[in-house]
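Hello again,

I reread your note about wanting to compare the complex against the isolated chains. To keep things tidy I'm splitting this into two emails, and this first one only covers the full assembly. Below are the input lines as submitted, including protein chains and any nucleic acid or small-molecule components. They are followed by the predicted structure of everything together. The single-chain runs will come separately.
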Amino acid sequence: MMQGKRVLSFGAGPGLWPDEVLARASELILPGPGTGLSPLEMSHRSPDYGEFHARALASLRRLLGAGQEHEVLLLPGGATMQFAMAPANLIPVDGVADYLVTGRWARLALSNARKWAQARVVASSEGEAFAEIPARETWDLDERAAYLHLTSNNTVVGTQLPLLPKGLDCPMVIDASSDVLTRELPLDGVGMLYAGAQKNLGPAGLGLVLIRRELLEIMPRSLPAMLSYREHAARGSLLNTPPTLLIVLLSLMLDWIEGEGGVPEMCRRADERAEIVYSALSSHPGVYSLPARAPWRSRTNVVFRLVDSARDGDFLAQATGRDLVGLEGHRSVGGLRASLYAPMPVDGARRLASLLDDFAAALGREGA
Amino acid sequence: MMQGKRVLSFGAGPGLWPDEVLARASELILPGPGTGLSPLEMSHRSPDYGEFHARALASLRRLLGAGQEHEVLLLPGGATMQFAMAPANLIPVDGVADYLVTGRWARLALSNARKWAQARVVASSEGEAFAEIPARETWDLDERAAYLHLTSNNTVVGTQLPLLPKGLDCPMVIDASSDVLTRELPLDGVGMLYAGAQKNLGPAGLGLVLIRRELLEIMPRSLPAMLSYREHAARGSLLNTPPTLLIVLLSLMLDWIEGEGGVPEMCRRADERAEIVYSALSSHPGVYSLPARAPWRSRTNVVFRLVDSARDGDFLAQATGRDLVGLEGHRSVGGLRASLYAPMPVDGARRLASLLDDFAAALGREGA
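Full-complex prediction:
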């Protein structure tokens, strides 16, 4: 099925797909031998589509460890839509929510919340160019807060919250777009967890929301149905015609993740990949630097710089020569970045490490 | 590529796809010989994806006849999201909008508008079970209205607005989900036109919005970026990671529509299909009845009933036996419905007409 060259993407999103899942998707998009219909043509209320829908939701529930107390929803619009919906659904009209500002996306989540209600900054590392995550002791929490919003992994500078805080007075709302399923995220204390699907879970254009059922009772303001978690939950994420094909493709990717060993295996691979890439970078301190400080370095977005940034173009060209792409840093900070999402093979990290070593060695020879 | 049986769907949405477009989609989802990437893996900011994005928007502009004064946007969430966004973006905080209530979806658009602002019913045919569209002379228009909302085609009872009204004091906002590109819709007087893509344009989970640029200046309330037409327009429908694969597939479907002859040819086929199916129904008045009254009958959703509704199951079973599916009526009204969207071949209408004739003939023999 696959022909010609195959390129490995380290882009920050959309992420890469395993060849076998793409092959299955390619086959599945054609009219099926049983139904005679493409999934693109199936009614979202038909049993044939319903099987994919239920399968994707059940996989997600298992992978996230969701219990009876949790709803799991699939919504359009990715994480950015949740920046808008979470505060609208969860902050009382005269209430307040707390936000920990650890990166560009956390800041955007905050500014979205402020369109609806009061939202406070409990701490921010913006003054340190987001190179670290503010220590818990420095957080100025508000006891009235409806929730504390956290970004579990920050893609732009490449930091990650190593552990979720415990013993808070309010539920946490967590944007886990860039590390969901690549780490164990215990759900106690979590009121809501959300993620755009396009990094670790597959198709761009879907948002995953896990929410405690009791939070669905709040509904502090009158909202159109499409913006209401309660309405989506009551209709099993079939409030309107959902992005059916994307949910079918999500179910294929989740099947693959479960088949490979689920979250424990995805965590193990994430650790191994990160270790391989960070080791290579650290072996050449004269060539590469890391803006994120050590205890907070991300396992899914390795952000690095060439000490001689004039060579960025050379590095990228050599990467492309080896069929490794998407290594440019975020446009707001420049530099380089390797995103290592759930479907990234460990061998991909090894190929990147070889490039890092060879590039450094060549620079050394030039300098000699 | 296609194997086994091929079934023709008359479902109200998602609609059917031409075999050749599905074959192209199946091929395209695999890593391309040039890029080595699947479109699922392409950055939404990459030139490779950008080509599809620009191509889809340019096709839409041509097909809709959009001019310099119009923005065309591709948004997540389908038409239901526009039920929420249109009033939020277009009705001043203390203002009002007018709604013509011609069906279930028009009523839902109205109730969504009322979440944000005042929305009036200018006329409703709900008392007539939506069997007709209220005559223009009966519309109680408000001169303060920010817009008049119209549903150009009503899928549940199968009525259609034959012509858009002229000489209004306010712009029209038109939900054209179920007849866009199957009729000529002159844009003078149209402030905004929107459609879920899954009926006439392909993939479920995308909304198309055409809006006059001057309306983007209004922005009566502070909205999160994802809910703001102005923000989406300023970012070329790339505000966040869009449903990239759906936009790629949309571009394939639009290529097909343009290749077949564009809107004039889609209109001609719509007329021919509707004529074939309505003629067959009308030939057997003792067997079939039509709830929609004659001047308002829809060319894309032919809603009909068996005079002996106890035979609905028989009819559907015979249809399935001929590989014709999706003929159930909307769950709120029962009966039968044939949706004839842009990609429906004229031959599909002929196959349905044969079934209608044969079913009626068999009933006649039973009765004889």
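For quick reference: The CA atoms of residues 315 and 321 of chain B lie 10 Å apart.

B.
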